[in-house]
Amino acid sequence: MNPFSHIKTIVDDALTQLASDGLLPAGMDTSRVVVEPPRDPAHGDVTTNAAMVLAKPAGKSPRDIAASLCTVLAEHADVASAEIAGPGFVNLRIAKTYWPGFMRAVLAAGERFADSAMGQGRKVNVEYVSANPTGPLHVGHCRGAVFGDALANLLEMTGHQVTREYYINDAGSQIDTLGDSVFLRYLEALGEDIGDIPAGLYPGDYLVPIGKQLAQEFGDRLKTMDQAQRQVLVKDRSIAAMMDLIREDLATLNIHQEVFFSERILHETGKIAETVQTMRDAGLVYEGRLPPPKGQLPEGWEDREQTLFRATEFGDDIDRPLMKSDGAFTYFAADVAYARDKINRGFSELVFILGADHGGYVKRLQAVTKALSQGNASADVLLCQLVRLFRAGEPVKMSKRAGEFVTLREVVDEVGSDVLRFMMLTRKNDAPLD
Predict the structure, then answer these.
(1) By the 8 A CB rule, do 238 and 179 touch?
(2) What DSSP state is assigned to residue 290?
């Protein structure tokens, strides 16, 4: 039993009665009629826009329709009052006699209360957290983790077939930096004096155990190993160790994702090149030039012919480069290949939970999803604003690169996972949270 659905049914029945009484035309489209909470709770329990959206097709003023609607609604046993508000909204108060039956339905349903089949089994991919595997999760990652997990739970309860996914950014310069940082800790574990951690490397003590594991397993053999071979080995072990740590941290919040997708796989299997070629064959890619950015030109910008995705044809602000001047693929090209992989796995709805600094990705991800799926899949890109952590009234400054941050695990250990999950949901995801 859903109060909003119940009142919506009452409103629909009232509109049908008005039509049968000749006060409204028969067969009117009521698909835009909604029942929802009013902005101000003092105005009632629910409000409906029925009179507003039906006024034009009915050839009547909204307030005239609202007056007739109020008369019919007020006669229903579950409606305590119906009043016109503003230009023609109808505010309703639900009768007190309705609630005992509602509460009995809640108790009878237990944890399954509010389940529905509105999702109709549609496959939804919810990607959240996706922090770089260069260190443990900090409190800033916590918000996207909790928000994404709660959203996935809601989608599941409303009849969607949900896959919870983590995108591992295990390609690029940050992984090279991680490998170099771990190798330094390996040398330290062998007894060498490494001095101060060089600028540009990750100084965090969380890398010390990985260095010790490598020293225990390989002794000093890594020092004489072929450099390219050694770098691959150290990076693989480092990523695996970091992802184990991240999974453990998420588990403390009762977050368990089914899929951990590696970006590096896209590069190693040629999926990016294959995706760009597929787009080229479909006419979604062309060789062209982009206008210079407005204002001061960014460092390294060059006016040149590029391989561009026709993103503006699908709602984006500009067409998007897929290749760099050196022939390498852009970071966005990997995102495109990843979106295509999700679509090929049968997902009709893609949900991306990203940090506030990814605002520029909203339109481009929506555009590429629409283009690659030929309009059969949609992308929802939801941004989580920053979390500011305070201790004793003072803000705590955090930097993963500097090795100075409060980990998610520390906060869970101090306040508990339920408290932390609740706090992360007390404000909308797009509002800052202290």
Answers:
(1) yes
(2) P
Query: What distance lies between CA 206 and its chain's CA centroid?
Result: 28
Query: Hey, which residues does 127 pair with through a beta bridge?
Result: 165, 352
* Structure tokens belonging to residue 400: 């993963």
Give the C-alpha separation, 396 to 100, whole Å.
Answer: 48
Distance set, CA 227 to CA 174, 177, 221, 223, 278 (Å): 18, 15, 12, 9, 36
Is there a contact between 125 and 163 (Cβ–Cβ < 8 Å)?
yes
Please, which pLDDT band fits residue 300 given cuts at 50, 70 and 90? low
Within 8 A by CB and 6+ apart from 35, the residues are: 4, 7, 8, 11, 46, 47, 48
Bridge partners, residue 35, by sequence: 48
Q: H-helix or E-strand containing 153?
A: helix 139-157
- Nearest of 167, 154, 190 to residue 429 by alpha carbon: 154
Tokens, residue 224 = 């004489």
The predicted-structure confidence for 258-273, as pLDDT tens digits, reads as follows 999 999 999 999 999 9
- Tokens in use for 409? 């695990």
Closest CA relative to residue 317, chosen from 372, 370, 373, 366 = 366
Token code pair at residue 73 = 């609604």
What phi, psi does 46 have (nearest 5°)?
-145, 160
